[in-house]
Amino acid sequence: MTSKEVTIETGVPVSARTGALSDLYLKEDWWAIWLGLGTVVLAVVLFSNGNYFLKALAVNPGGLKWVSADQLLAHFANNASMYLLQFVAWLVLFGVSCRVMGIKMAQFVPAFVFLYLLSLAMFGISGWVDATKYNMEAPLLALLIGLFISNFIGLPAWMDAGFRVEYFVKLGIVLLGATFPISLVATAGPVAIGQAMTISVVTCLTIFFVGTRVFGLEKRLCAVLGVGGSVCGVSGSMAIAASVGAKKEDLYTSVTLVVVWALVMVVFLPFVSQALGLSAGVAGAWIGTSEFADAAGFAAASAYGKMAGNEDAAIKAFTLMKVIGRDVWIGIWSLLFALISTMVWERKEVGAKPDAGEVWRRFPKFVIGFFVASAFMSLVTSGYSPEEFNKVVKPLLILPLNSLRTWAFIFCFLSIGLTTRFRELKSVGWKPFFAFTIGVAVNVTLGYILSVHVFGAHWSAL
Length: 462
Known about the structure:
The protein has 462 residues and is mainly alpha-helical.
């Protein structure tokens, strides 16, 4: 890494580091952990005492399935007090932490007000009864609307202070851990775990080596592209960008390609699955190995499940493959690429001695929050039977945390769009597109072979 390169998180030279103690309150990674784990602990305490206030506070219109605008307006009218309280809670939590990190409140507050209202609109649109039919999932819709506003309408540059892309996605990933008990991995079984591992490793290495060896792209860009295409697109890209010290353009290139192909696969995978006459479980597994965003994949699995007459089987297979099997690789790839970047690449580039401490400084700490939240929730829910979990724990504890996680991701996707100005991005040409697309072809083909021919009997049994 040269001295001119900057971190994704702060935009300041890597060498300009704060002390280890001050990192605990000056870095977004740690604030994401404190807020995420604090929310999880509060949720568990309230749930254990029979208080379901968090369920009410996590309200959103995304699952409303409204037919007329009157239904949507009635929902907002009936829940106005909770939305106001929710807004105040987000504003206080983000506002205080951002102020501590040196962000001006005069800029952050009005920008966040705009962000929250726009997020509410995204949820409202995605709650339309036919939203899934037209692939209008809230996260992807948020990204597209954000890009449109930023590039065709325009916003004052100072509003970027409230569009904290990294902060929001890091908090979302910590909360994702809470909705991802480690015990769920056991329910996936060796088939799902093995298939997810194969897909993640082969896809990531394909994109990385094609990008570096065939197209001569920079290693850090290829690392971000590789993980973005093999795990959970935006979250994976963000984590690896921090791990290897990638440039902002590298991150946004990966996010753009992930979103483009996610939208393509939402249409392609259900259509081809129907043409091939695949069972709901098999198609759900194939979608889980081949989609690049959780929201888009869920929409595709749900759509095909309805076509095949077994939505539950399609969603279950997708969840086992994508949410449980592949997303856990965010942490694994983060650690591996942090090691490779500091121990190999930088040693060759500038002759720096390998430094284990640098691996720790580079490692995205919010990934630790993900695993801590997952372990904690596993401990909390371990005493419940599957029936109790589905009837009590899931609707009253897990789903409210899932809703808050979705809010964080909507904030993130909107912020990505609102801060991405095409004219400011360096031209990267077609090489990253072709490298990523070759990985897509390998991913989809290998996923089909594993889901249909190798483990078809297993997925059909769902």
